[in-house]
Amino acid sequence: MTSRREFLCHTSLTLAGAAFASRSRADAPASAAGTLVIGGDLKVSRLGFGAMRITGEGIWGEPRDANEALAVLRRAVELGTNFIDTADAYGPYISERLIKEALYPYPRGLLIATKGGQVRPRRDEWLPDGRPQHLRAACEASLARLKLERIDLYQLHRPDPQVPFEDSVGELAKLQKDGKIRHIGVSNVSVEQLAKARAIVKVVSVQNRYNVADRNADDVLAVCEREQIAFLPWAPLAQGAQRRPAPDKRLVALGAVAQARHIDMSQANLAWLLARSPVILPIPGTSRVDHLEDNIGAAKIKLTPGEMAQIG
């Protein structure tokens, strides 16, 4: 017998899904960022949500406020964000579980991307594990946690120097052939590694560190632009650079633009990424609804060519 609490929870999720499905893209705040087609068949908003920070402090353990974490996920979808990025290493495993708890049954058109190939034996350790047997087990575990029959976008979290890169990517190709993965992405790769991956399988996305103050992946972004591969910048808000004693001159210039526009730095950083390249899909993360709404507000901010030149 279904309890009243279970009934109310199911009804709430069903109504939320219906609201998402019925809301036109023109009405959703995230839609102002435009759209991007991933893999030739998955059309998503260009402002996604990164579900790393809905876990506990240090991306470890349960969130401090579970209800707020669930509310953030539901609000992201309500605002028109239909691309959620996660990984089995976030928590570990907790981010994926919370996504399922908050959003299942998933509204039509929602793309959940997850990653495998990195393990967390302890809170402060992030260790690569690109062994084929690990990747297969990780993918199957993510399918179970997310309650999916197939993962729309599965990404290799990072190359493992102890495992031939071709073996790791090759296993993802096998998982795709087995019907467990729809599309394949790679993360934290060089131009050379991206080329190796593309020689084995169709790569539809790259997720590298990139923001206004850290452009070391400019060469990878150039390949993505040329080949129409989605580029998902992690650390999009340049928070690490903002905490340095000597601020980056490009951040200073961005701050001047933000002040003139009367917007905050988070919005300015996201607006810069959206203007930087049409293949960029920012995935800012947060554990608070108010921060989420602030980030989504960046969708409507269009930096001018003059402002982009000012930032450099």
Can you give keywords for this protein?
312 residues; alpha/beta; TIM Barrel; two-stranded antiparallel sheet; 12 helices
Summarize this, please?
By secondary structure, this protein is of the alpha/beta class. It has helices at residues 4-22, 66-78, 94-103, 132-146, 165-177, 191-200, 218-227, 239-242, 249-261, 265-276, 289-296, 305-311; strands at 35-38, 42-45, 49-50, 83-85, 111-116, 118-119, 127-128, 151-156, 181-187, 203-207, 230-231. The N and C termini lie far apart (62 Å).
Structure description:
The model is unreliable at 1-24 (pLDDT under 50). The chain is α/β, with parallel strands linked by helices. Helices cover 43% and strands 14% of the residues. 44% of the residues are buried. The chain has helices at 4-22, 66-78, 94-103, 132-146, 165-177, 191-200, 218-227, 239-242, 249-261, 265-276, 289-296, 305-311; strands at 35-38, 42-45, 49-50, 83-85, 111-116, 118-119, 127-128, 151-156, 181-187, 203-207, 230-231. It contains 12 helices and 11 strands. Strands 3-4-5-8-9-10-11 form a 7-stranded parallel β-sheet, with helices on one face. A two-stranded antiparallel ribbon has the order 1-2. The chain has a two-stranded antiparallel sheet with strand order 6-7. The protein has a single domain (4-311), classed as NADP-dependent oxidoreductase domain (TIM Barrel, Alpha-Beta Barrel), CATH 3.20.20.100.
